[in-house]
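Possible race condition, two jobs.
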Amino acid sequence: MLYSLQMYKLIAKFVCLISIAKIMQEKLEMSQAQASLPLIELDNVDIVNDGNLILSDVSLKVNKGDFLYLVGKVGSGKSSIIKSIIAEIPLKKGIARVGHYNLIKIRRKQIPYLRRGIGVVFQDFQLLMDRSVEDNLLFVLEATGWKKRADMVRRVAEVLDMVGMGTKAHKMPHQLSGGEQQRVVIARALLNNPPIILADEPTGNLDPDTTIEIMDLFMKIHREQSPALIIVTHNRDLVKKYPGTLMMCENGTLNKKETEVEINFEDDILGGLAE
């Protein structure tokens, strides 16, 4: 009788271990499957803003470590793609996914969590002018769920050092040059270690020398941290100097261009560093 009870316990333990191993294997396979998925996937998406069709049948796949440009004429839909990726413009048709978020079905309360995984760099900086550089970045950390002050201050110092602004933490935005403000904006985008960085005309308000400095910084971040990096630009010289995948908004949709040679630079689609 005692022997049978011991055997029963041994068999039960064995079955339990098998079940645990199976669950762990399933989780591992699910994790591997998710890791193999694109960070951004748009498939035959229509982008509509305020009832107006901006782009139709848009398809785009972006993986970890990808670097691509969105180019096209003013008003062609480049910024609308960026706004769609961060769920600012709702999508109704096709397949649209960023990370594990379905942009077609995303709920309003999920949008802040989606955006925590995306670093956005704006052309016009969008810094809080009544707060110091450090306080601008601390505000973002507080808004995205950070709690411990010491951890927040440490993270702010880390990202400011990454962009060469470690000694400017207590400066006010108006005390900084345009290039310095853009460095702060890039630091802000890096705060939560996002796997995706979206830069909408990040050098549009900068002089040629500062533009090169900012692009060199982007390339350094891309090389060292391997985020997916999408840059919206009109600058043909950047496209030539810093090669990446070219996606062009034209004729109401999005098309891939193999080289910048395929883009008609004489048609005022892109500007140059000297302009």
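Job #2 (started ~2 s after job #1):
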Amino acid sequence: MKIQYVTLNLFQGLLGRRSRNKFGMTEKMTGRLYFRMKIYIYGIIDSNGGIDESIRGVKGAPIQNIPYRDMGIVVSRFDEPKGITKTNALEHEDVLERLMKRFTVLPLKFRTLFNREEDFLSIMEDHYGDFWENLDRLRNKAEFGIKVIWSGDRIRERIERDYCKTNPGTPEASDPHGNRYIEEKFEKYQIEKEFEEKAEICISIIDNFLNKFAAEKKLEKSKSRDILLNAFYLVEKGRQKDFKEAFEIFKIAPGGFNYKLLGPLPPYDFVKIDGREGVTL
């Protein structure tokens, strides 16, 4: 999906910092890779045991779970990763969604690659507490994303018309002191204020209806003309049916909005590392 907040690629970011003194490689430093990275990581799960071997990964590769203490890192191995492109993103997502049926999953960013197991196991060691706290908090929960589409331009035009009807301006011909310029500035301010207030009211109505089914939420208020809101809700398994039924009821309500629902999805937007929310692993 992606719909995201703070985009901190923790795994690749930490590897990049360490590469100066230990691994000797990063694309940012050199513009190319000194080593061929062979381990593709899908996510971290709350199990160090086996997984369903019928699940196939990116490019049809088999997957395995590399144990680390009481959790595991789900990976595939490649001799040559160059053929992994954006067209394989759906395969990446499919692996995560199938893992979610049996495990709690911390999803990693598409095309997260390492050359050696010890590279990412050292990161697991450094952030073990963070990873386990996330697994515990996100257990039996999934993310739902909602996009709210509205006619922002049309609503703004309606506000402008109503304002002009109730607040006729000073004609330019009878305005030797430039009062009309000040009036126009104030008019724009008032229209923008009313537009933002209307948007906030609409967002509050939508959120109040759906939030009661969620354990956590994130609201991204868009400044786009067409997008009012990108909302992300973390919903427990036992309430996901209720959440989807509530959404189906709400989307047919009058108001001139269109809605798009994605989910259940891996909880990309609810991972917290070092107190930072929405971290992309």
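The radius of gyration is 25 Å.
Logs attached separately.
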